[in-house]
Amino acid sequence: MKGGGCKEEFVGWEKCVEQAEAEGGYVVERCHDATAALRRCMDKFPDYYEPILRAERAMAEDLEAFKASEASEPSPASPPPPAAEEEQGDDKKQAEAVVAKEKEDLAA
Question: Which residue ranges run through the membrane (predicted)?
Answer without folding.
Answer: none
